[in-house]
Amino acid sequence: MELSIKGMTPLRGEIEISSSKNAILPILVAALLADESVTINKVPDISDVTIINQLINSLGVAARMEDERVVIEGQPNGHQPPYELVRQMRASFLVMGPLLARQGKVRITLPGGCAIGTRPVDLHLKGLRAMGARIDITSGDVIASAKKLIGNHIYLDFPSVGATENIMMAACLADGTTYIENAALEPEVVDLANFINHLGGNISGAGSNVIRIRGVRRLWGGEYTPIPDRIEAGTYMVAASASAGRVLIKNVVPEHIKAVTAKLKESGAEAEERGNQIEVSRKDEIRPLYIKTLPYPGFPTDMQAQYMAYLSCADGSSVITESVFENRFMHIQELMRMGARIRTEGRTAVIKGEKELTGARVKATDLRAGAALLIAGLNARGTTVISDSEHIDRGYEKIVEKLNALGAQITRQPESH
Ligand code: UD1
Known about the structure:
Radius of gyration: 21 Å
Structural class: alpha/beta
Helix content: 25-40%
CATH architecture of the largest domain: Alpha-beta prism
Shape: elongated
Bound molecules: uridine-diphosphate-N-acetylglucosamine
CATH topology of the largest domain: UDP-n-acetylglucosamine1-carboxyvinyl-transferase, Chain
Strand content: 25-35%
Distance between the termini: 10 Å
CATH class of the largest domain: Alpha Beta
Number of helices: 14
């Protein structure tokens, strides 16, 4: 599918943020650890959720979407998630921890390179090995086994979100206590720990850089509602300011998006926090920024592309350094087709602000790159057509409907080529 966007309409009104994609994916996977039925509330209708549910079903556990809930029932009886599902989404690799913990074995394809870099899994494997898993890599598959995982001290060379989550899930049914040092601090890691504790797990320190996981014999069932999506919120905040409109963003945790809000204010926007809502507006020119992506609580890499689109029309030159992923600048080429002036040197991009962008045919290379092009298209003169827009649907629920309700003019259409 492609999206056609008529540009230059200020966004005005209210928008409700969905639950966090990056919290829900590991939470759904962690339901594989439970002995009884698990219900997750307020699950967004996005394609990454559909894929993870298919993956869970492929392991002999029923995962059904009913209205806005996913109900997960049954015990895993498979240990080999299908290649076609795993290769579609890196988060699939998170089944490794729960399957090792419950089945004592797992065979899963290595996530290959993707549009934003090679994204290795060495830290996941290092942690699982430290807990006593035997791990071999054969023909692109990781084959792991462990009679019983044993708690240990695990130091992560980098605070990887996925490695922290995978190890945490493996450790919650292990013998003894596991300490993850230099753990990721992301709110989604905290939400996963809260969910596991809600089912009877014993995890403390999530949200700090040392997480302690005391192994328990079993996890029960339960019902859980995940946190709101901070990246979805950040994306609409930037879109609102880019269009010089005024939007009330509802269902956010302002604490989770401090870095995004701070940069938005620095650029000349107003962002007024009221409980779990933020109102964003802008009257003055967009001021140029210096941004460096970092692990939480630093500026999120998942907001880098959207800010680049925004700063393409700033009053001066901005500098963005991507320090989390090695190759996350695929959107630059596409933004330049719309008239943006950007040059790169390694992981740094210099964006020379232009008065305005011009609509063009562009391609969404990945989820956040797609969101960036949408922001650019909303503010470009003329019509922008984004092909491969399925990437955007992986992580943004009803994005066309939500933006059109704010006054945008976006239509979905079959790919024209
Ligand atoms: C998660 C998010 C993703 C976000 C990223 C960073 C989900 C489903 N996805 O991805 O949206 O952009 O966090 O905030 O939650 N690395 C290694 N070895 C490893 C693991 C990671 O070198 O074993 C490197 C990666 O290549 C990357 C960096 O660490 O350069 C960050 O990756 P990580 O934090 O693991 O991101 P993900 O969990 O894949």
